[in-house]
């Protein structure tokens, strides 16, 4: 017998939805709070009733009953940088599947701003917090330790996590790119990066690894974070003026790599025979770029998905299998190297 869909005139309750969908009230509760525990057909039936009736859960009452807000707060350095887009999309989708909503703040690569944002966020008592990177002010660390709220640090596993971390080693990225260029017989490599912590870790690891291979550290040129095409071009001009024999540039973002390629063309330097260029991020919107840009690929979507799943495990069960999830990276060699 098909489920009834008549909409009552009085405010709907979970009991009403349960009767219309021909399920128990507990099943309706699970639909909103732990949908992954329901069969797909049951979820679809309840979803249809919810859509047709316009029912919304009484979040305040639910939060009091479950001692949960169903909110997760995340702080990213930049919302305009495309490198975080896939992470945010996957994070949002995975949390939604688990019955949670994502609230996002932007720190502007400023630890003090992250600290101020966190103070505001904690007043709303989210069920979980996601931070970008492992570097934070001492005040931020103190607030998180006192809050007893699960925390996931993403895009970095350089330091022991506050609670959980999901990402990759930036130092290993720098070392791997240095090894790659050394094996490609590049003897005057350099690096350009933004002045944020994670970029600097990659730059310094690259430079010191080149020193280990070739006896001389690679030059490092930095630009203010977030890097722009204009700052990338200016940094490339500076590098080529100071080190005209540079034969390879490790650019710590694909945007910087684009700027380096523009300046190489302006200087009449053939890529890759005279100058190799490798970016970082392997952004999808550059896949049609000519020449095809060599880059370090990180699975930004997997970072978002795994961060959400680890956080859910921590919220619901109080522990995770491992506090650190290393998703690794790969060097994708294309026309520019």
Automatic annotation (TrEMBL):
Q: Which SMART domains match?
A: HTH_LACI
| SUPFAM superfamilies named among the record's database cross-references | lambda repressor-like DNA-binding domains (SSF47413), Periplasmic binding protein-like I (SSF53822)
Enumerate the UniProt keywords alphabetically.
DNA-binding, Transcription, Transcription regulation
Q: Which Gene3D superfamilies match?
A: 3.40.50.2300, lambda repressor-like DNA-binding domains
Q: Name the PROSITE patterns for this protein.
A: HTH_LACI_2
Domain HTH lacI-type: start-end pairs: 12-66
Query: Under what name is this protein listed?
Result: HTH lacI-type domain-containing protein
């Amino acid at each position: 017998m098909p489920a009834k869909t008549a909409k009552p005139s009085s405010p709907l309750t979970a009991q009403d939805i349960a009767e219309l969908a021909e399920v128990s009230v507990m099943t309706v509760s699970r639909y909103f709070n732990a949908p992954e525990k329901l069969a797909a057909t049951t979820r679809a039936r309840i979803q249809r009733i919810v859509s047709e009736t316009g029912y919304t859960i009484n979040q305040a009452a639910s939060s009091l009953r479950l001692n949960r807000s169903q909110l997760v707060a995340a702080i990213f350095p930049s919302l305009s940088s495309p490198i975080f887009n896939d992470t945010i999309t996957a994070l949002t989708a995975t949390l939604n599947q688990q019955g949670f909503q994502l609230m996002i703040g932007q720190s502007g690569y400023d630890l003090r701003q992250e600290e101020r944002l966190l103070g505001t966020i904690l007043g709303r008592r989210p069920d979980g917090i996601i931070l970008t990177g492992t570097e934070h002010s001492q005040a931020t660390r103190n607030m998180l330790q006192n809050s007893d709220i699960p925390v996931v640090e993403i895009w970095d596993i350089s330091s022991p996590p506050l609670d959980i971390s999901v990402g990759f080693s930036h130092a290993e990225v720098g070392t791997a790119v240095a090894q790659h260029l050394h094996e490609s017989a590049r003897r005057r490599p350099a690096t350009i990066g933004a002045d944020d912590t994670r970029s600097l870790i990659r730059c310094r690891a690259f430079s010191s690894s080149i020193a280990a291979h070739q006896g001389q550290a690679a030059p490092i040129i930095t630009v203010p974070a977030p890097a722009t095409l204009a700052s990338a071009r200016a940094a490339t001009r500076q590098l080529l003026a100071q080190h005209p024999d540079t034969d390879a540039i490790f650019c710590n973002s694909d945007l910087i790599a684009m700027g380096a390629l523009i300046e190489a063309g302006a200087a009449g330097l053939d890529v890759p025979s005279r100058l190799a260029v490798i970016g970082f991020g392997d952004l999808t919107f550059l896949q049609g770029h000519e020449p095809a840009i060599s880059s370090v690929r990180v699975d930004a979507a997997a970072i978002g998905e795994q961060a959400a799943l680890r956080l859910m495990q921590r919220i619901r069960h109080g522990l995770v299998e491992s506090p650190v999830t290393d998703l690794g990276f790969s060097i994708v060699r294309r026309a520019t190297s």
